[in-house]
Amino acid sequence: MTAAPGPGARRLEGRLIALGVTGSIAAYKAVELLRLLTAEGADVVVLLSPSATRFVGPLSFAALSRHPVESDVLDLLPDGRIGHIVVADSADAIVVAPATAHWLAAMANGLAGDVVTAAALATSAPVVVAPAMDGDMWTHPATVANVGRLREAFGYVVVAPESGPLASGQSGVGRLAELPAIVDAVVEALDSQPIRQPDAARRPPITDGTPREADLVSRRIVITAGGTREPIDPVRYIGNRSTGRMGAALADAALARGAAVTLIAAAVEVALPEGADVIRVESTAELRAALRNAMASAPAPGASDGSDGRIAKPADALVMAAAVADFTPSKPQDRKIPRAEGLTLELSPTPDLLGEVASLVGEKRNGKAAPILVGFAAETGSLERAPGKVAAKSIDFLVANDVSEAGSGFGTDTNRVTIFDRSGSKDELPLLSKREVADRILDRVAAALDARDSDAQTAGMQQPTSSEGRSR
Ligand code: CTP
Q1: Alpha-carbon distance 255 to 88, whole Å?
Q2: Is 253 helix (H, G, I), strand (E, B) or coil?
């Protein structure tokens, strides 16, 4: 027996509800239905049939649901999973509202030509259907038979349309049921079943987050991105799989929050945001030189006094998203090595660039304006080494992910990370878009900078100035 929810309890808390919308004039009402479902605590993912997209665009649904809208049965999610199957396997219920006569016929016959029928066919979750159509279509024997089959053979809950004025100008039965009645039917269909998929990583990815305030104005943030290339000879190099997506998302997010951004880009496969001060590098040695320059108090060559919006002052934070080679050829050749000569490479470890910056900063800590340092760790299989890296590198935050996990590796638009901090605590984030991960990291950086400044201010207030000393 389960306890009845108390007054004001959200009846769909923690549930994932798939909202299928098909091509009826009532499709616009689905936006309000989505709002009502989320007000009940549901996480909602929207599926649009091709004809629904002619009545309502996917944008409002995407913005309100915070998930990519699925409208093509052949589309894959940004992380490569098959969208309608992920929905079918993880949703607690599928609600089709409005359902057209055509959709009812396709469903009754198992024709999976659109994402809504495909997800419904592939799921074992309850399906709630709210038809809307012209009165004569609703009473046609074909529709009556199809609705009967959905109810009796498939066990679907059908929330019958109501009587009233129709799009045709006539009056009759065919209007989409009242939205609260559809929400009630979903709640009832779920009864006290456990949540099917509580793991957010197995649900459809979340695409966006709350827009942030301009909380990084007058901050200068250095971000490194992409993978370094270590020269073997003028033609060949040792590289890695980094695409620069995470670093570009960080730069984009920092700019949107008002920061001045220096973006040191090693090899990247994505467009870099306009507005960042981009410095291109190839090898770890070049990255090291650029990093020293960018972090330094002296303005980098070409940096301005701030009159053009670029701020020539020491960096307030470093976010080290670049995949830096751990080894580099000991003796790179300045001519191409002929194949006939054969090749045995001798590699030397590279300096730990983040560690180097941290030890320079270490000398400045103790109340001074030391920059906040963020490292990344791409691990495989487990994150157990991550807390040790925060201490070893003496950094403020380490963003660790398991690159062997689906949706979290190189070249994806999503990432599932855990943020470790100096105090030893960790924040395990769900699968998010890289842009949202960037904002979550910058939330920490902005808060740490504010704390740093207020500490410095308090220390300044407690320290009597020499003139105060004399007047006492
Ligand atoms: N990093 C760096 N210099 C290097 C290697 C890595 O600054 N030569 C930075 C990376 O940009 C990243 C962080 O250090 O932000 C952690 O990288 P990772 O390769 O996980 O750390 P390592 O200490 O090299 O550990 P591992 O033994 O896993 O290679």
Answers
A1: 38
A2: helix
Distance CA 408, CA 401 (A): 7
For the stretch 392-439, pLDDT in tens is 999 999 999 988 877 777 777 778 899 999 998 898 887 787 888 999
Atom 12 of ligand 1 has which residue's CA nearest to it?
376
Q: Which one of 240, 293, 366, 415 is the catalytic residue?
A: 240
Cα of 42 vs centre of ligand 1, distance in Å, is: 40
Q: Using the atom order of ligand 1, give the atom closest to the CA of residue 354.
A: 7
Which one of 222, 223, 319, 352 would you pick to mutate in the ligand 1 pocket, going by the greatest count of ligand atoms within 8 A of its CB?
Answer: 352
Q: Which of 359, 378, 362, 380 is nearest to 370 (CA)?
A: 362
**Statement: residue 34 has pLDDT above 70:** yes
Residue scoring higher pLDDT (17 or 428): 17
In the residue annotation, 415 being an active-site residue is answered as: no
- Residue that wins the pLDDT comparison between 470 and 443: 443
Angle 223-394-451 from CA coordinates, rounded to 5°: 70
Q: Please compute the mean of the pLDDT values over residues 377-384 and round it to a whole number.
A: 90
Domain ranges of the chain: 16-202, 220-460
Q: In this predicted structure, what is the pLDDT of residue 466?
A: 40
Distance 423 CA to ligand 1 centre (A): 20
Considering the four listed CATH numbers 3.40.50.1950, 3.40.50.1580, 3.40.50.970, 3.40.50.1980, the one that applies to the domain covering 16-202 is 3.40.50.1950
pLDDT at 87: 96
In the chain, what are the helix, strand and coil shares in percent, each to the nearest 5? Answer: 35, 20, 45
Between the CA of 362 and the centroid of ligand 1 the distance, in Å, is 18
pLDDT at 115: 97
pLDDT at 170: 80
CATH topology identical between 16-202 and 220-460: yes
Pocket around ligand 1: residues whose beta carbon is below 6 Å from it? 320, 322, 324, 326, 350, 352-354, 375-377, 389
| Neighbouring residues of 1: CB distance < 8 A, sequence distance ≥ 6 | none
Q: What is the position in ligand 1's atom list of the atom closest to the CA of 374?
A: 15
Of 160-169, 266-275, 435-444, the least confident = 160-169
Q: What is the mean pLDDT of residues 145-163?
A: 97
CATH number of 220-460: 3.40.50.10300
Span from the CA of 418 to the centroid of ligand 1 (angstroms): 16
386 CA to centre of own chain: 21
